[in-house]
Amino acid sequence: MKTKTEAPIWALGTMSGTSLDGVDAAMIRTDGRWIEAFGETGYRPYSAEEAAILRAALGAWPGEDRVTAAKEVVERVHLELVSGIAGAEIVGFHGQTLAHDPKGRGTHQAGDGAALADRLGLPVVWDFRSADVRLGGEGAPLAPFFHFACARWIGAERPLAFLNLGGVGNLTWVDPAQPAPEAPGACLAFDTGPANAPINDLMQERRGEAYDRDGALAAQGQVVDGALELFLEEGYFRKMPPKSLDRNDFSLMLDLVRELDDADAAATMTAMAAAAVMQGIEHCPVPPERLLVTGGGRKNPVMMRMLAAGLDCEVAPVEAVGLDGDMLEAQAFGFLAVRVLRGLPTSGPSTTGVRALVGGGEVSRPQG
Ligand SMILES: Nc1ncnc2c1ncn2[C@@H]1O[C@H](COP(=O)(O)OP(=O)(O)OP(=O)(O)O)[C@@H](O)[C@H]1O
Ligand SMILES: CC(=O)N[C@H]1[C@@H]2OC[C@@H](O2)[C@@H](O)[C@@H]1O[C@H](C)C(=O)O
Fold first, then answer.
1. How confident is the model at residue 2 (pLDDT cuts 50, 70, 90)?
2. Which one of the ligands is nearest to 200 CA?
3. pLDDT band at residue 19 using 50, 70 and 90 as cut-offs
4. Any idea which architecture 9-137+357-364 has in CATH?
C-alpha cells in the first residue's frame, strides 16, 4: 500500500526482545529511506510474573493455551507503553518471538497488531517476518535495511558492520556507498550465534540471577579451550549467510560447560559468543572498517574486550557514533513500518536469503 506523500513521518517502533526483559519503544522520523530524526524513547520492564508467562510460552505456536496467556501480556504491556508516548503517526509493532523455525513451521511473534490499532486509534504495522518466511527467507534479521540508513546517518563512507548482542547475536555488513539498502552489494546480514541468552540461562540456573552484570563472573573465570573448540565445530558456523537462529537453538552450550565451575562456565560462554562473531566476520565481502555494537552485550566489558582482541577492526558501542544501543531495534521497527506503508522492501536475498525483495508486514488501521 502506498501513501500519497513521501514526506517523513513520526513512527513509533517497539521491540520485545529474546531476553524477555521488557519492551522498548522509540520514535523515529523517516520517509522510509533516510533517517531525519530520532525522538522520545520508553521502556517497560516485564514483571517477574509476566516474564515467566512469556518464558513458559517459548517454542509454542498459535492455538496452544500458553500462547493465549503470552499474547495477553504482550498486548497489555505494549498498550501501556505506547499510550504514554505522544506524536506517533504510525506504530511498528514487532511483538514477542515465541518460536522461529523458518524452514519448518514458520515464525511466530505473539501480539495482535489489529487489536492494538483499535485500542490505540493509530495504524499499526505488524507481523513483519511471515511474508519473508513464506517466500523462502529466514524471516530474520530484519534490522539490516535500517542499519544501512544508520550508516548513512552517521556519515560513513566505507564498509562497516553493526553487531547486535541481544539474546542471539546478529550482524549486518553495510556498504554505505550503495544507493539504497536493497541495492545489490549494499548489505549482508545473518545471525552470528548465541550471545547473551545462554549466559542468562546459566546465571539463572547457577546463581538465580538474570544476567552476568558487567561480566563480573566471567572476569573471575578462565576460558576452557576444549569446550570452546567443540562449540565452534557446530555446523552453523560453516553455513553461508544469510542464516538465522531461534533463541534456544544452541542449548547444547549449557551442556558443554556443565562440568565447569560457575566462573569458568561464564567466561567460556562469553568467549563462545565472541568467537561466534569472529567466525561471522569471515563471511563479510570485505573486512569492515569498524564494528559498531548495539544491544545489551555492549555493556559487558569482558565480551567487548574479547571481541576487540580477536578482530582486526575497531570495536565500539554505537554510542561512539551518536546512536542509542538500547533502542536501535525499536527504532528499526519504526523505520520498517514506514517502509511497509510506502511499499518499500524490508528484506532481500542478502539479508534473509528470501528469493526476491519482499515488503513484510501487515498494516492494520483502527476500525470504528
Ligand atoms: N551491564 C551488563 N552487563 C552484562 N550484560 C548485560 C548488561 N546489560 C545488559 N546485558 C545483557 O544484555 C541482555 C539484554 O540485551 P538486549 O536488550 O539487547 O536483548 P534483546 O533485545 O532482548 O535481545 P534480541 O536482540 O536477541 O531480541 C541482558 O539480558 C543481559 O544478558
Ligand atoms: C526471529 C527473531 O525474532 N529474531 C530476532 C532475535 O534477536 C536477535 C536476532 O534473533 C535477530 O535475528 C532478530 O531480531 C532482530 C531485531 C532483527 O530481526 O534484526
1. very low
2. 1
3. confident
4. 2-Layer Sandwich (3.30)
C-alpha to C-alpha distance for 58 and 72, rounded to whole angstroms: 14
What backbone phi and psi angles, to 5 degrees, belong to 330? -65, -45
Model pLDDT, residue 5: 66
| Fold match flag (9-137+357-364 vs 155-321) | yes
For the whole model, what pTM was predicted?
0.96
Q: Is the CB of 95 under 6 A from ligand 1?
A: no
Q: Is there an atom of ligand 1 within 6 Å of 234 CB?
A: no
Pairwise CA distance, residues 161 & 35, whole Å:
18
User: What's the gap between Cα 290 and its chain centre?
Assistant: 19
Task: Quote ipTM for the complex.
Answer: 0.96
- Output DSSP code: residue 215: G
Q: Which fold has domain 155-321?
A: Nucleotidyltransferase; domain 5 (3.30.420)
Report which bound ligand comes closest to the CA of 209.
Answer: 1
| Ligand 1 site, residue 211, Cβ cutoff 6 A | yes
Confidence band for 255, pLDDT divided at 50, 70 and 90? confident
Q: How confident is the model at residue 40 (pLDDT cuts 50, 70, 90)?
A: very high
Mean pLDDT (whole number) for 84-89? 98
Listed in sequence order, the DSSP H helices in 177-215 are 197-207
Q: Domain ranges in the chain?
A: 9-137+357-364, 155-321
Query: pLDDT, tens digit, for every residue of 176-199?
Result: 999 999 999 999 999 999 999 999
Q: Please tell me the residue having the least CA distance from ligand 2 atom 11.
A: 141
Residue 110: closest CA among 66, 70, 55, 78: 70
- Provide residues with CB under 6 Å of ligand 2: 17-18, 97, 100, 107, 140-143, 164, 166-168, 170, 191, 244, 329
